Amino acid sequence: MIDGKVAVILFDMGSEEVLRIGEREWALVAAADGTRDIEGIVIAATRGGARVELDEARKFLASLEDRGLVVRIPEPEAKTSSPKTEETLPSPDLPVRPLPGYSLSCDRSGRCCRMYSTVLFALPEAERAAAVLPDRRIGPVSRTRAFLPVRGSIPGGAVAVVANNGACGYLDSDGACSIHRAAGADAKPKGCSVFPAMFIDDGEEVRVSIKTECACVLNSVNHSGGEPLVDPAITRSSQLDPVVVVTVLPDPISVTSERTEPRKVVVAWIRQWLDMPTPPDVARACWAMADALPSGLAAALEAWSGERAAPETAAVVPFVAALARRAAVRTRVDAQWRSEVDRVRRVGAWIAATAVTCKDPQLMAEVLQVPPIDADREAFFVRAAAFGYAVCDEDFGEVQCGLRDLAVKLWLARAMPTFVSEGVQDEEPLSALEAWLRAYGVWRYVLDAKTSTPVPSPNPRD
Ligand code: SF4
User: Fold this and answer.
1) pTM assigned to the model
2) Helix residue ranges per DSSP H, 276-424
3) Best label site of 53, 56, 156, 212, fewest CB within 10 Å?
4) How far is the CA of 112 from the centre of ligand 1 (A)?
């Protein structure tokens, strides 16, 4: 629902493409679930009230196929002798270790229910929500369309709940989850109950860290009495709910484009890093670590300590410029279809305005001199990322990129209060930036800056 009107929006998180389609086209896509041939798809769409010709359907589905949004059922695989790529396997049963000294006080503002393109429910969770709140309707959206398949017809696959101006359809106007309100926390989808905790198997233990994507995560820093990240009774990974996603840290890990280290060496290095005292400016320290990594892990730890001068502006500007380019593209797209009251649109415009201005070398030189606005929050932001191995995320390709990304985000968040506009006055800059970059693929700026890849052109296409 966008400003009270029904719209069908397809997000392709792989290509970051946003496609807005009409009701007739949606009827075709919904019928193309892998159970019918093209004639059957047309019959199913027609039965659903969408009159469409066979040729028209063929052309439309071919155009989706060209974009990788629809795939043909593959032919049975021919036997091949080429070996599969090796994957690091989960460890059998490990101690569970939550981020020490931290508990979360959720402010129940519902911010995190208004940030992501798609809120996923497992099918039983969707059925439970519909049973708990049988009269829940978002505008004219019928009950049968309150949940739509995320892909194909895979039995038991996840479904996407209808969104209302970018917010989950079960979010009430006061920021409360209506499912939680009606039937308690256990009735919510598991993903919502677990969020923002993250679970990482490093081969020695399963660490429970936190995504710093919500203001309440940072507001909880130095406060006690909140909720633990994981039930204290759970001490072994075998006790975790099977639906909890545990990411397995790869082995080996790329530290720079030239250097790879065994996982256990990187795990030990991160432990040493976490045991070190926090320097006065963690953004400068992260950047200095990234600079030092080519000389080895020990050199990077040395770079973390003590006072650091600001880095060369010319070294940082390409990263900010790459972020500005991606943010500008994303916000132009959002402005074409998102409501003005949509949090994603407002936060994106704020970030884009900040990055576009700060890519000016003179201004960026000034930003690099800005001291931390809240040193404890910034230190926690880096500690949570290190504890949860966010700097080792395979998406970055190498730890060096992960460290540069941390530094750039900290500097931009320090500049963001200068660019506050209508609708973002109550936002917490660092967590809003972190959430938006991850949710909409804008984090890839760090790869653009490294490889100077041009940013994809704007969409959506109708
Ligand atoms: S189900 Fe509830 S907690 Fe989950 S996103 Fe929707 S409103 Fe938020």
Assistant:
1) 0.89
2) 282-292, 297-304, 313-337, 343-358, 361-367, 375-387, 399-415
3) 156
4) 8
DSSP helix/strand/coil, 299 = helix
Measured distance CA(182)–CA(166) in Å, rounded: 22
pLDDT digits (tens, 9 = 90+) for 46-86: 887 788 888 988 999 998 888 888 887 765 554 444 444 45
Burial of 278 (0-12, 13-18, 19+ CB in 10 A): middle
Binding pocket residue ranges, ligand 1, CB within 6 Å:
113, 119, 168, 170-171, 177, 179, 188-189, 192
Nearest residue to 363 via CA among 355, 351, 375: 355
Which residue's CA lies nearest to atom 2 of ligand 1?
177
> Ligand 1 centre from 130 Cα, in Å?
13
CB 251 within 8 A of CB 88: yes
Domain ranges of the chain: 8-66, 113-185, 291-451
Residues 325, 330, 336, 340, CA torsion sign: negative
Q: How many CA atoms lie within 13 A of 344 on its CB side?
A: 30
